[in-house]
User: What shape does this take?
Amino acid sequence: MAASLSVSSSRPVLRLLALHGYRQNERSFREKTGALRKILKARVDIISINAPLVVPEPDVHRDGELDCSRDDPRGWWFSDPQNNSFNAMDEARTCSGLEDSIETVAKAFSELGPFHGVLGFSQGAAMVAMLCALMQAGDTRFQFDFAVLVAGFKSRSVEHEKYYQHPILVPSLHVFGETDRVIPGHMSQELALHFEKPVILTHGGGHFVPASAPQKKIYFEFLDAFSK
Assistant: This one.
């Protein structure tokens, strides 16, 4: 895969496609990952896109993610199609919107790619896991070398069980907070178990993308394996 070069280090700059969390959008997620972009600047170029589903006004009893954008909130699928809402805890029989989101990501790969890896946060990370499964199953629309999943989880929808039938061989870094109250750590660990030899990075915080000194070393070690 072709890659640009960093002037300072002559290290190939990795291109990552980024998928935001539920009730976020491309712009808000770009702002919330500013610290991460700063520490990875010489190594990574992060390209964010919008999910296709417009999320209605929040229902405080149904909202699956507390960290949200009040301006154009978006999502990758609804676990409650009747109310166009999502909660990561839903054990739903039917969902809506995922196919539209898969098409949206496929279009991004076609028009904005190639990408070395994919980065997802919360619902976006759950989406990334599904993309890994699709690629492994032979879906040629998606071609990437690794995945970074922050505060990810396994979808509890019956319709999505097919994405977890086989161990996912895509190299992966799973990042989650020990005090995350939106997506508890055990949900992220559950998702990681579906990956072969996942790299685990925990932090003491909550529902956000960490980018302080303790995480920097792990990010570098993981990413540098794909830029040689």
